[in-house]
Amino acid sequence: xxxxxxxxxxxxLQASNVSVYSGSWRYPSATDDYLDLRYYQRxxxxxxxxxxxxxxxxxxxxxxxxxxDSTDDAVRYGARPVKLDLxxxxxxxxxxxxxxxxxxxxxxxxxxxxxxxxxxxxxxxxTRGRSAWNVVTSVNDAExxxxxxxxxxxxxxxxxRAEEFVDVVARLWDSWEDGAIVGDRxxxxxxxxxxxxxxxxxxxxxxxxxxxxxxxxxxxxxVLLQAGSSGRGRDFAARWAELIFTGDPSREVAVEHYRxxxxxxxxxxxxxxxxxxLPMAYTVIGETESIAKEKEEIFLDQLVHPMASLALxxxxxxxxxxxxxxxxxxxxxxxxSVTGIRGLVEGVRKHTQGEELxxxxxxxxxxxxxxxxxxxxxxxxxxxxxxxxxxxxxxxxFVLAATHFxxxxxxxxxxxxxxxxxxxxxxxxxxxxxxxETLGLPRPERLDA
Length: 449
Prior knowledge:
Blueprint: E1 8-14, H1 37-49, E2 54-58, H2 72-77, H3 86-95, E3 101-107, H4 113-126, E4 131-136, H5 141-145, H6 155-173, E5 181-184, E6 189-191, E7 201-202, E8 207-208, E9 223-226, H7 231-240, E10 243-246, H8 251-267, E11 276-285, H9 289-301, H10 306-317, H11 332-336, H12 342-352, H13 359-367, E12 374-377, H14 379-391, E13 397-401, H15 407-422, H16 435-439
Parallel strand pairs: 1-2, 1-13, 2-3, 3-4, 4-9, 9-10, 10-11, 11-12, 11-13
Antiparallel strand pairs: 5-6, 7-8
Helix pairs in contact: 1-3, 4-6, 6-7, 7-8, 10-13, 14-15
């Protein structure tokens, strides 16, 4: 399978008061109806107008509560204290669209495999094959305490559990063969029991009998996303993921990551060109270059409170930074004690090219526009910058994060997407009905359940 000449565009959202950019709620034109279903439907329609591959929602299972062992700063500064249940949010988006892929984050640490398998299989059936699961292992002790545990599992154990979890989910999705439903009303036969299979899985972490209570879906199985950035995370993504979501802060880092990840995919016996690698990026688009740069300055300097950044960094790394000063250096000793997402630190160090890494800089890479590359300018200039990354094989497309809702995605769709289409690197219409058809992925053969 050759590398596609069409890039993928994925919208990265939170069912929250903010986007991943923690100052988004303060931007003057941002809407504040994020507790209304029409808010999410409006965004979904805009993305489908722009023929985006997919909208997917990030999630955490707790408020940021690691910094100072308190949720106060998250609540006070709006650092993602609101997190709606994604099942309901995806349902309302599904009702407003016909082609757009719909994805959500679900944890392999705090949900059972059967629940996750049934959730996404149901969504896939109801949307005629448009669902995707973003596989995460969760990150911090605050989430553990909401599920009756004192501390979060260690890094390697989380991935050991996730390996077995995803294997079980995939086999549950395949526990019904295609054509199992007979629907013989006269003969009274609904389905062929010879084509519906129990798993009888007995593993280290799970015992699951099966079969799933949802037949095999139109696209065979929902699409799998994964965002592991550590060595273990990259191997997990290489084995399972069909879309790999990365956090590379510069093109040089992204090119290196792209090559490494594609090599790992090949080592697992998979076709590297059948897996799309998509770094997160921001776009700041204006009617003129000067307007775009003026907007960029607002996003960089005026909207994110430092305490919001620290609350979100502590959440991500599962480490309480309240005993540190903002200008304290990030040492190897400190990083060795962190149980959260280690790949963030490694990526920021590469981006800063040997400069001393301080807590202030690291926190800014979690909550501000420093978190990912940003493309700034007119729609034509932003399209050119995105095309340059794509041509350099730094990516197969982008996960676009919003600086504010809904205007950030409206700007991309109406000012940048037309230029990407003129360049021949992005579609003008959907090629089929399922998400796999949109991505150019084959319908997977059924695993022997």
